[in-house]
Amino acid sequence: MIGDQLGPVYGSVAFLVDLCRELVALLLIPFVIRRNAPMAIGYGGATSMDYTLPVIERTGGVHCVPVAVASGFILSLSAPLLIPVFLGVA
């Protein structure tokens, strides 16, 4: 969506930023989840229901899984609605 509206350079930058965010989330979740589980799940963003879910479950326990799935689902649904809004502002 970003590449379509702003061009391939910004689309590539958005992809790389998202990839780096996911890698940082994978590294931070095991350390943060002990202190504040909701914040650690938030680091995963929309990927907390699929890509980072195994790390969340392994380090936070099974009780964190429903929150992670619900958070990831809501963020995945809201992204296609919010991206055009924010791109229209820029």
Automatic annotation (TrEMBL):
InterPro entries: LysO. The chain crosses the membrane at residues 12-33, 67-87. This is Surface protein. It comes from the Bacteria. Keywords: Membrane, Transmembrane, Transmembrane helix. Pfam families: Lys_export. The keyword Transmembrane applies.
